[in-house]
Amino acid sequence: MSxxxxxxxxxxxxxxxxxxxxxxxxxxxxSSCGASRMFYCYSCGAPVGLDPCDVPNVKLPVKVDxxxxxxxxxxxxxxxxxxxxxxxxxxxxxxPCIPExxxxxxxxxxxxxxxxxxxxxxxxxxxxxxxxGGEPRPKRLKVNDQSDGADTHNCPVHRVIFIDSTWNQxxxxxxxxxxxxxxxxxxxSRRTCFWRHQRGSPDTYLATIEAVYYFLKDLHSHYLxxxxxxxxxLLFFFSFLYKLINKAKQTAGKTxxxxxxxxx
Length: 264
Known about the structure:
5-stranded parallel beta sheet, single chain, 7 helices, 25% helix, alpha/beta
């Protein structure tokens, strides 16, 4: 991606050529449900008009659970990007369904800002202090599974919960008693590139896939080897759409870009 001054510049991404081809081909039927879709089916979590091998597969260092508000429109949510690109590590739940949370077996955090939220840098100290006997209980991760005797690095969390919802609708989920015991963590302020910006909200309100990406990048930077773009492909679809929509705005004006956004 060219340097247009956006936070998406410089990402290490798989080729967008298959997405350009799929765009030219137009909407196609999902092979599973038969619905008309472009690029992917947000209902089935499957690529549409794309060879599966053209969609990057990203391995994450932690499990990611996304709790989607029932009123969140599937076709407008970026949560499905995470599931498509990291299917082994990402699960999406529609509230009131939430994942089983066993904090005695896993270090689990909820990504949500607030006065009681810690930073990514503070995670290690938090879980070290809370562990029985004062001993830390972080997960041990191998840097290179192909090498015998590979170095290991400490990651303080096993699972991260994200809420997929507009800001005004988060209260219903965040106040659920099943989530109250989870420690909260927040990200440093970053500017969103999401084209469906919530009216009246600051540009630090991130789309779900942006939040997942930035959290993992920060986690990696603090606790794992130097970051070398391991999770950049989480923004594979997002960055393509961002560039496509920006181009449409420049050539046709904002009022003419609605057709570009209709992935549903």
